[in-house]
Q: What sequence folds into this?
């Protein structure tokens, strides 16, 4: 069942900057958020978490503003993509490619790693409403491989998008009868359907990337492709991408990470996923360790336990999977470096 993320009215709307991310300050990412001082202030956001993603229904009777700057990105390198289904009113988005307005029936994707300014505008009846989904970009990239750093706009006249929105709405409205695994499967399916729509619609192709964005995308792709190579190094990535090691470090700083942090975090996350989805009779822990780029099973076990506070064998046996997820989220938010 959906929970209230925030509810703002005349009594508390000036506190919106500290309230819009929810009570645990866990939703969205850092930015400047404010509400127009109007005669009627009524803003409400309801959230349905599904794995690492959230489906959020936002309704407002006044204009809302959100700004994400380079400074925010340096302070908070959370890489989230937001999928917007505009139902009522307008969504004005300004970024390095200019200004565009999404109207009812339009579909938009924004990403937190590029600066932008968003204005939510009520319609003539004084209502603004959007259904949007926040999802880590690395998860969405498996379904929509295009670079989305400068945003994406599409009209909802494609049948795939209508189906995806209906699926997301059903998940949001579920009263708890759907199991978490089923909800996650439905969400992944909705992402896949959206990916099909994007790939078959040339007008949805994102705006021109900057050289820096393209270089960073090349680096991230190279690292993901060669992640299982235990000899993966900055020299290897630099040579493969045709850039200097110094420039590589600079690109990764834009993403808020270092080479070591990025590689080891990805290896551990993929190993955790592999442990969760595989049968011990089909593949051993050692094979998984080598498969994600560790040179020894012992090293893998030590690092896994250091980050997740549980060893791989216990995790595979079903002990504390929720604890592991919480520990990993806490680790990544703290920016800890694996040694």
A:
């Amino acid at each position: 069942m959906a929970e209230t993320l925030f509810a703002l009215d005349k009594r508390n709307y000036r506190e919106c900057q500290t309230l819009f991310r929810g009570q645990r300050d866990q939703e969205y990412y850092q930015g400047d958020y404010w509400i127009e001082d109007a005669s009627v202030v009524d803003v409400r956001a309801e959230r349905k978490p599904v794995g690492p993603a959230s489906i959020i229904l936002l309704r407002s009777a006044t204009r809302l503003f959100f700004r994400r700057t380079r400074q925010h990105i340096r302070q908070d390198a959370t890489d989230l993509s937001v999928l917007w289904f505009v139902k009522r009113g307008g969504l004005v988005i300004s970024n390095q490619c200019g200004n565009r307005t999404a109207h009812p029936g339009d579909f938009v994707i924004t990403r937190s790693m590029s600066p932008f300014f968003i204005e939510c505008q009520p319609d003539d009846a004084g209502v603004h409403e959007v259904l949007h989904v926040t999802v880590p970009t690395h998860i969405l990239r498996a379904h929509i491989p295009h670079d989305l750093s400068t945003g994406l706009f599409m009209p909802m006249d494609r049948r795939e998008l209508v189906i995806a929105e209906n699926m997301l709405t059903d998940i949001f409205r579920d009263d708890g009868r759907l199991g978490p695994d089923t909800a996650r499967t439905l969400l992944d399916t909705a992402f896949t359907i959206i990916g099909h729509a994007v790939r078959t619609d040339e007008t949805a192709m994102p705006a021109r990337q900057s050289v820096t964005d393209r270089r960073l995308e090349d680096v991230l792709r190279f690292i993901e492709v060669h992640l299982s190579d235990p000899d993966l190094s900055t020299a290897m990535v630099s040579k493969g991408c045709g850039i200097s090691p110094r420039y590589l470090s600079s690109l990764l700083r834009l993403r808020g990470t270092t080479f070591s942090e990025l590689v080891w975090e990805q290896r551990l996350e993929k190993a955790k996923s592999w442990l969760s989805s595989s049968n011990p009779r089909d593949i051993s822990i050692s094979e998984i360790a080598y498969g994600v780029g560790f040179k020894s099973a012992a090293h893998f076990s030590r690092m896994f336990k250091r980050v997740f506070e549980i060893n791989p064998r216990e995790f595979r046996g079903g002990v504390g999977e929720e604890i592991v997820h919480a520990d990993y989220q806490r680790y990544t938010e703290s920016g800890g470096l694996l040694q």
